[in-house]
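Q: For a teaching handout, I want to show students what a protein-ligand complex looks like in token form. Below are the inputs, and the small molecule is 2-acetamido-2-deoxy-beta-D-glucopyranose. Please produce the holo structure.
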Amino acid sequence: MSVMLLVLAQPAAAHPQCLDFEPPFKPLWHLEFCAQYEEFGCCDQKTDNVIAERYWDIIDQLEVAGDELCADTLKEIMCQECSPYAAHLYDAEDPYTPVRELPGLCFGYCSEFYGKCRHVVKYLTESQLLRDTSERDVSTFCSVVDLSDRDYCYPNVLKSPDLNSNLGQVVEDPRGCLQLCLTEVANNLRNPVLMLHSDDDTHRMFIAEQVGFVWVYLPDGSRLEQPFLDMSGEVLTTPWLGDERGFLGMAFHPKYRDNGRFFIYYSIQVNSKLEKIRISEMKVSAYDMNTADPYSERVILEIEEPAANHNGGQLLFGVDGYLYIFTGDGGKAGDPFGKYGNAQNKSALLGKSSAH
Ligand SMILES: *[C@@H]1O[C@H](CO)[C@@H](O)[C@H](O)[C@H]1NC(C)=O
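A: Here is the structure, written as tokens, with 2-acetamido-2-deoxy-beta-D-glucopyranose included.
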């Protein structure tokens, strides 16, 4: 199972995407070389510099050969890596087919390119097919370089108002819904139930699995090998995918940065029979900011659970500084316990959100 983050994106018709499958962005710094993409595209300054270096290497070789006709076209082609439509141009959207070595060129443009630049193909790509066809004839070469989708081949992709009018804007559809796209931030997790940050400027993300592990993800997306917290020995759950019991909630204290306190919510079984949910406070280790102190647990509240389902589990701090605990109604179906169920019973802690 994987965890996805919503990223604001584009109108429905347009679907800009970079070669790494990430959404395009406004680069932090000015782009010297592929300057047309410095407002919105797929290159940061570093990638821009790498492309420029490759370009000047090729130009050097062309000068030796006395052939510089192609310089502008070459630059145009090389900068397509920075296009907000790079994934379309290079056919990178399908991870099961190889990424193109050259951007997809519309036939007319490709013919021009062939006329001026066929001798640079050998510097641009290692692909034997492209190199061979560049020495054969224009129609063979351009049928290889062509992109079957007319709207997205270069330079058509620049001309379509549908694709370009709202680039980089957050767009609403006619019903007022924002257009969003998803980006994967983690995978290979077992029933991930929550993702939190600790609001301490470390920019770590904490992802909890229902079986009772909390993992630390660093800002670069990598996951630390040791879990932040391992409650798998205490937590009651089963391998059954639909089990609603387990490690269900966690919240960092608003002053976590100073006091290292956080709160957890999980299912337990007492004397191998009675089932409860438990809410505890814990602290981070005094020696390692990426590990919880396993001996720090202080139980705050335990509530008996009459059934295996509907266990709630959300823990949140309000702006008032109180910890809010959201409990389920105790389970079965239709809140059947007591005279009028648990949720409407003010003496029952089940089926409530309560502040502490
Ligand atoms: C309300 O909940 C309490 C605590 O679980 C229980 O003792 C009581 O019988 C319930 N009342 C009704 C009317 O169901």
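A: Two things your students might notice: The CA atoms of residues 49 and 160 lie 28 Å apart. Residues 338-339, 345, 347-348 surround 2-acetamido-2-deoxy-beta-D-glucopyranose (CB under 6 Å).
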